[in-house]
Specification:
This protein has 175 residues and is an alpha+beta fold. Helices cover 23% and strands 33% of the residues.
């Protein structure tokens, strides 16, 4: 396994005080863009505050990025801004919630975004990279998408009227 593109190891015993700012450099942004299959990441910063609860490290913050990727319709590159908040729990190895294999259970807010780590540190940079990955829409449309659809005679999903036998049967039921 290769090293993470954006690595920022944090030791739970020596958590930074106040707000920690992480800014990806040019090489890190290029490597992340390649990993996520987009054209470029022009900027990537995150501000994080730490806390502790029940032996876990809490990391709350906000990431901001300027991304460039191909339009899902025209394939022409376009740039847009992403801004996401996150709330993560870093839990030492073996301390994550255990669940029976076939049992039904309900996830609580505390179970979400829980990341297990081994050793004496966790990688906050990789966690931020994963949060960014979740914010990228691979089917995002650029500014010329609607015009390209019109030129090609393709209706967008919003304007398309359902057709076919099932649509006709449902329409008849509405009457």
């Amino acid at each position: 396994m290769s090293a993470p593109e954006l690595s920022r190891p944090i030791k739970p015993r020596a958590l930074p005080a106040g707000t920690m700012t992480i800014e990806a450099d040019e090489a890190e942004r290029a490597a992340l863009a390649s990993r996520f299959g987009i054209t470029a990441i022009h900027t990537l910063t995150a501000e994080v505050e730490f806390g502790e609860k029940d032996g876990a490290v809490l990391a709350e913050g906000k990431l901001a990025a300027t991304l460039e990727q191909p339009c899902a319709v025209t394939r022409e590159d376009f740039t847009y801004e992403v801004s996401e908040t996150f709330s993560l729990r870093f839990v030492p190895e073996g301390r994550m919630g255990e669940y029976e294999e076939d049992a039904e259970f309900e996830l609580t807010e505390d179970d979400l975004d829980e990341i297990e780590y081994e050793g004496d540190s966790f990688d906050l940079g990789e966690a931020i990279a994963q949060e960014l990955a979740l914010a990228i829409d691979p089917y995002r449309e650029g500014p010329g998408a609607e015009e390209a659809r019109e030129e090609a005679g393709i209706e967008s999903d919003e304007n398309r009227k359902p057709s076919g036998p099932l649509a006709e049967a449902l329409a008849a039921l509405k009457k």
